[in-house]
Amino acid sequence: MGALTIGFVGLGNMGWPMAANLHAAGFPLVVRDVDAGRQDGFAAAHPGAAAATAPDDFAAADIVVTMLPDGRIVADAVLGWGIGAALRPGALVIEMSSADPADTLRLGAALEARGVRVVDAPVSGGVPRAQTGELSIMVGGADEDVASAQPALRVLGDPARQFRTGRLGSGHAMKALNNVVGAATYCATAEAVVAGARFGLDPKTMIDIINASTGRSFVSANVIGANVVNGAYATGFALGLMAKDVAIAQSIIAATGADAPVLALTDERWAAALGELGAAADQSRAHQSWWADKFGEH
């Protein structure tokens, strides 16, 4: 494994543990974050890892992993700052952010002109699975490029949870559609709990029953159950990122002409939450923008 040199761009809540797992697996590592102190801190905490100060620091990279908030920021880093221009032909970019498929296709076209290949491989599982290297990964791209990505992907995710989605951009489409299902589930669960609280039911008891019954979901157990009814609000996933993914899903739905009124309303709900609470709020707080009363008040 250690023969490949890997660049890692984006050392946020997800990126840091993902890069740490690649370092632990023995890959020579070059890291980049817009926060110079954060990338220097990573290099200091992981002996042998180098913090990039210029695009040419990626010149020896066989693979560059990007884990950034959206496709625009990926383009700024790879095309604007110049990582893509520094890579040699045959290098591979693994785009693991939650991005708009259209941005991914534009990135792929721009890098193809330089002989650099791209796969999109967004993830699901949050910070806990990023830390353990057990992320679910949705992979789009040419077969030979997906094969070249495996040394990194098998460290970052559980091979049993790696899914081949199709052509370049399909992984990002799948990620957005997965997240819009989670966002819609949050809306439905939150609405039910608020209605129950106003009726006189205890929200925690409601969630316990839902989690033992047919209404159970990842959202009921890990978002509302573990973060809302107890007031923790600490899922580690920003509301702005969820709203962005929901909007991407809505653009995919519009492009396909699918009749999806529930998901259209989900987009409206999350856009409203984003406008009132701001992008930095934890996703689990979204309900606070929809009702004056909070869970447990009736």
By secondary-structure content and strand pairing, the structural class works out as alpha/beta
CATH class call of the largest domain: Alpha Beta
Order of helices and strands: EHEHEEHHEHEEHEHEHHHHH
Radius of gyration: 20 Å
Domain 6-phosphogluconate dehydrogenase NADP-binding: 5-158
Protein name: NAD(P)-dependent oxidoreductase
Family: Belongs to the HIBADH-related family.
Domain 3-hydroxyisobutyrate dehydrogenase-like NAD-binding: 169-286
Write up this protein.
By secondary structure, the chain is α/β, with parallel strands linked by helices. It has two domains: 6-168, Rossmann fold; 173-289, N-(1-d-carboxylethyl)-l-norvaline Dehydrogenase, domain 2 (Orthogonal Bundle). 51% of the residues lie in helices and 13% in strands. The protein contains twelve helices and nine strands. The strands form two sheets. It has a six-stranded parallel sheet, sandwiched between helices. Strand 2, helix 2 and strand 3 form a beta-alpha-beta unit. Helix 3 runs parallel beside helix 5 (101-112), helix 8 (170-199) packs across helix 11 (239-256) and helix 9 (203-211) runs antiparallel to helix 10 (218-228). The protein starts with 5 loop residues before the first strand and ends in a 21-residue tail after the last helix. The mean pLDDT is 94. Keywords: NAD, Oxidoreductase.
